[in-house]
Amino acid sequence: MPVLVMKFGGTSVATLDRIKRAAKRVGVEVAKGYDVIVIVSAMSGETNKLVGFVNETSPLFDAREYDAVVSSGENVTAGLMALTLQEMDVPARSWQGWQVPVETTSAHSSARIEAIPPGNILAKFAEGMKVAVVAGFQGVSPEGRITTLGRGGSDTTAVAFAAAFEAERCDIYTDVDGIYTTDPRIADKARKLDKIAFEEMLELASLGAKVLQTRSVELAMRYKVKLRVLSSFEEMDDAAGTLVCDEEEIVESKAVNGVAYSRDEAKMTLISVADRPGIAAAIFGPLSDAGVNVDMIVQNISEEGRTDMTFSCPVDQVARAEKAMADAKASGDINFHDLVADTDVAKVSIVGIGMRSHAGVAAKMFSTLRDENINIKVITTSEIKVSVLIDRKYMELAVQSLHDAFALEKAG
Ligand code: ADP
Ligand code: ASP
Ligand code: MG
C-alpha cells in the first residue's frame, strides 16, 4: 500500500471536535487506499503551558527533565486521535516516539533525528492496521532518555517519517491555507504562494517564519519529500495549499519573495574586551557550551587594543548568556567592562533566490526603513537574504512596509 504522512499542528487538534474533523480527513485518505501515518502536535497552548511550568520550577533547567515534561502534550493528542479513529471503525493505534523508535541525538531540547527504523509500524500495517498515530516532536536518545526536537518539531517528525517510509506525500495541516509571502497575521496584503523553492523556505523558516520548522525543510530537500502545507479548517481539495519544491519548478523570478520576522530576540554587547587572537573563541565557545544560540555577530573597530563585541540570541536565553559570560570572566578566560542586554529587539529579513542576480536590494530595504524612521541596530546578509535587528515595537511596521516596497502582493 502507498503510504501518506499527514501532520496536524496544535490548532488542528485544539479540541475534541477539531480532532474529530482531522480524523475525518484521515478517514478519507484511508478510503482512497493509503496506509496513513498521522503525526500530531500537542493541543494548541499546551506546550507553552508545560514550558512555563518548567521555567517556573527551575529557570536554568536540566534539559533532560525539560524534555520529559514538554514532550507529554503530544502523548495526549496521539492517544485521543487513535481513539477517535477507532470510534470511526478505522483500525488505528498510537505510538510515542520511543516506541517506534524515533532515534535521536542526545542534544536535549533540540535533538536531531538519526534514524526511524520502520519495522514495527510496517508489521502492524501488514496485520491490517490502517493508521499509525505518532506523537510528534519527541524521540529517544542513545542513553534511552526522552528527547524533543525544538519548538515546531512535529513538522520535522512528519518529514522524517515521510522519508523513512518513502511516503507518496507529506501533508502539513495547519491554521493557514498555505505559505504566504509573509505572515498573513501581520500583513493583510500577504499573498499565498502555490509553490515555493526549498532554498527560500529554508531561509524563511530559519529567519523565523514558523509555518515550517527549519529542519523539516532541510530533510524534505535532502530526501526529496513531496511537502505540502494546507489548512485543516477548509474543505478537502487535492490542489489546495502550497507545495515546497525544487527551484526549477518555480516560474516567479522576483528579487525578493518573502519577508520573515523573529519577534523575541535580544542584543547583547560585551563592552571593552581585549582585542587579541582567540577572543572570539573565548566568548562564543562558552556561550555555545551553555546552549545559547548566537545568531548575528558584530565586532567593533578596536581602540587601544580593546573592542566591543555584539551578538544576538533568543530573548529567553539571555540569563544563560549572562551566566556563561560571568563565569568566563570569573575564571579569567575573558575580561570585559560590562555586558549590556537589549531585550526589546526583533529581527526582520527579506528573502529571495532572485537576489543572486539583482543589485540594490539591500539598499532598497535600508531606504524603506529610513522612510519609516526605523533605526537599524545590526545588519547581516547572505546570498539570498538580508536581515536587520530593530526595536521590537517597529516590527509589524517594518514587515508591512518592506512587503509594500518589494510589491510582494503582486505575482512576479
Ligand atoms: P501549527 O501549530 O499548525 O504547527 P504554527 O503556529 O507553528 O502552526 O505555524 C502556522 C503559523 O505560521 C500561521 O498561523 C502564521 O501565523 C505563521 N506564519 C509565519 N510566517 C508565515 C508565512 N510566510 N506563511 C504562512 N504562515 C506563516
Ligand atoms: N508542540 C510542539 C511545539 O509547540 C511541537 C509542534 O507543535 O510542532 O513546539
Ligand atoms: Mg508549528
- DSSP, total strands: 18
Question: What's the total helix number?
Answer: 12
Helical content band = 25-40%
**SS-derived structural category:** alpha/beta
Bound molecules: adenosine-5'-diphosphate, aspartic acid, magnesium ion
Q: How much strand?
A: 25-35%
N- to C-terminal distance = 40 Å
Low-confidence stretches: none
Shape: globular
Question: What integer is the average pLDDT?
Answer: 95
Q: Kindly report the spatial arrangement of strands forming the biggest sheet.
A: 3-6-2-1-9-11-12-10
What does the largest sheet look like? 8 strands, mixed
What pattern of helices and strands is seen along the backbone? Answer: EHEHHHEEEHEEEHEEHHEEEHEEHEHEEH
Please state the CA-atom Rg, rounded to the nearest Å.
23 Å
